[in-house]
Amino acid sequence: MVSEHASPLAALGGVDAGGQNVHVAHLAAALAARGHAVDVYTRRDAVDLPPQVELVDGVTVVHVDAGPPAEVPKDALLPHMEAFGRRLAEHLLERPADLLHAHFWMSGVATREAARSVGLPWVQTFHALGSVKRRHQGAEDTSPPSRVAVETELAAEADAVLATCRDEVSELADLGAPHDRVRVVPCGVDVDLFTPDGPVGGPERREQHRVVVVGRLVERKGVEEVVRALALGPTSALARTELLVLGGPPADHLAIDAEAQRLRGLAEELGVADRTHLLGRVDHSDLPALLRGADVVVATPWYEPFGIVPLEAMACGRPVVGSAVGGLLDTVEDGVTGALVPPRDAVALAAALGPLLEDAPRREAWGRAARERAVAGFSWREVAARTEDAYEGVLARTRLEAL
Ligand code: UDP
């Protein structure tokens, strides 16, 4: 696997460390559990990293020298991908592989280079598409200008493209990806860590209801709409609800984080600051307890390539109110495991959330259904089996073509 900026060893919750890191770490481990040896190639972003680290039995993380051995924002990494590809090809001569799997478009650039040079098939998972990002972020999109064109090439040239949700399949079709090479393999959730039963964490409850939001503190995650919803419906359960926002910089850096300050300012302006608690980044291992403490988990991004957090909440047996975008359309079953609302619409969010907070039996029923859905369709075991199936399809075709 190639994951240029998202190391499976990185701390989560920062601006550039999120779902992809989790995905690569767990998918690699679950494939190893099925008997495969997995090498994960990621960029060296600190001088003192060892050349290789064993993540778990069967998974080795290899640090590739490409660009400065320091943290570089992911949108500035493209110029280093050619060097990454060359180094990757050299590593592959020493650590032979059957197939390459690139995560994110820039890994695709490096992987394509290496795959051609050593003659291996490659599979591409984009995790996010530049075309979607540009549509939603417009001038604020800091991706390299060539991103959409490069993604279009990669989608056409990869031996297989794994879309993480159905919504991405139509986006890939719009890019002209050959439909017989695209298949859906979703992201997964650790259903042994995220469970309904277990310790409940977080600050002491001060209100009757608790809503939890987890994510990087970036505007498009839609935390603003949740803060606004809290202030709506003064006579509904929302008026007796506290909001915990987990993620972003570590707690002691929130004071210098622009988005945290913006959200705090908004909460003050709306008179809900005493019920809005920004807690900063939390260790991944502490999340299950914090999610269990929620009556409802809210995830209302403006857009979302997949969204692992809603799945984590579901695996903890919590109902999710989410926006009807991207991967949430596949994970949250509206009216069965949670509710889907239009994005960027605090009024619709309040209308779905208020009555749900009043209705404990419905929350419990949805939570039970959510756990079942997460286990049945989204465990890493299941995701690894589907990934293996995709790999086998590619290898079979490559063998046929070689005849
Ligand atoms: N996460 C975490 N601690 C935090 C914030 C996030 O462990 O403080 C994890 C979260 O549990 C999830 C991932 O980071 O596994 C975020 O993935 P998601 O797909 O929801 O969003 P992304 O960050 O990729 O946009």
TrEMBL record:
Domain spans labelled Glycosyl transferase family: 206-373
Record's keyword terms, sorted: Glycosyltransferase, Transferase
GO molecular function: glycosyltransferase activity
Annotated Pfam families: Glyco_transf_4, Glycos_transf_1
Occurrences of domain Glycosyltransferase subfamily 4-like N-terminal (ranges): 18-192
Domain of life from the UniProt record: Bacteria
The protein, known as: Glycosyltransferase
Species: Pseudokineococcus marinus
Source organism phylogeny: Bacteria, Bacillati, Actinomycetota, Actinomycetes, Kineosporiales
